Amino acid sequence: MELFQRPRRLRSSATIRKLVKETHITVDDLLYPLFVVEGSGIKNEIPSMPGVYHLSLDNYLRELEEVQEAGIPGVLLFGVPDHKDEVGSGAYRADGIVQKALREGKKRFPDLLFVADVCLCEYTSHGHCGIVKNGRILNDPSVELLVKTSVSYAEAGADVIAPSDMMDGRIGAIRAALEQQSFEDKLIMAYSAKYASAFYGPFREAAHSEPSFGDRKTYQMDYANGKEAIREVELDITEGADIVMVKPALAYLDVIKNVSGRVNVPVAAYNVSGEYSMIKAAALKGWLDEKAAVLETLTAIKRAGAKIIITYFAKQLAEWIKS
Ligand code: PBG
Fold first, then answer.
1. Is 186 a member of any domain?
2. pLDDT tens digits, residue range 257-299?
3. Which of 66, 226, 259, 300 is the most buried (most CB within 10 A)?
């Protein structure tokens, strides 16, 4: 039999390519992470993340204006506190840096979605995501503090609570506390399949959250494991998560694909700091076309099945899409 298969017909003009294009990335898909610090007049670039800044509240409010202007649905807030202690009390103080950012931000920009990352590592003197005793990271006492932090963020105006600690049972405990305190409308976006990854390096410089001893491998997942992601995601949904996340994104496209095929809630993927910095560094050296590389990688994350993409490129991407 003679074959006349010519796949190139579907690529032969810009018009036909437009017609058959399967995956479109839009500004609607994006969340933009921001780092807030105490003080005023501060806008310090994070050395390992060009284009990403520590922002004091005044500059943070200016940034929110640009985010809203760009049509980005929301921001993911990280606090970098002045003081750290053993129990991360800066995370759940009513006047903590994220609480202040939530109150101010929500007041001025009620239509933006405020997502609060819930973790202790930025607030603990040892840099771990939970309470430490005899060199071990305790689960249930850490969950208690994560619950306290979540309720405090809800009170301050967070729309979405996003626990990134990876303690067992925290989603159920946070959901129960939110229900009890009449915060039943608050969403939970769970960092469900969060892997112990080398790609968080630049973030830890940004958030000053490098653990002072050991690593995060007793709570974050082993990158060799795919099935475990399904288990974590299913547990979080059962416990009350509205959105589940896979993190990082690029080395975990298979996990995003498997998870999104399995569950009926929106899947988010976190295009993490190291993924950002790799492209930035190569682009600064002139080794990569930044815009092309970003569009390709973010489209791949969406193609794999993520509806929501958390990315430090959000503002730039919004500009590129517009132009
Ligand atoms: C806090 C947290 C981390 C990131 C998000 N929340 C760092 C970590 O777990 O060490 C990483 C984000 C990034 O790398 O962009 N636990």
1. yes
2. 999 999 999 999 999 999 999 999 999 999 999 999 999 999 9
3. 259
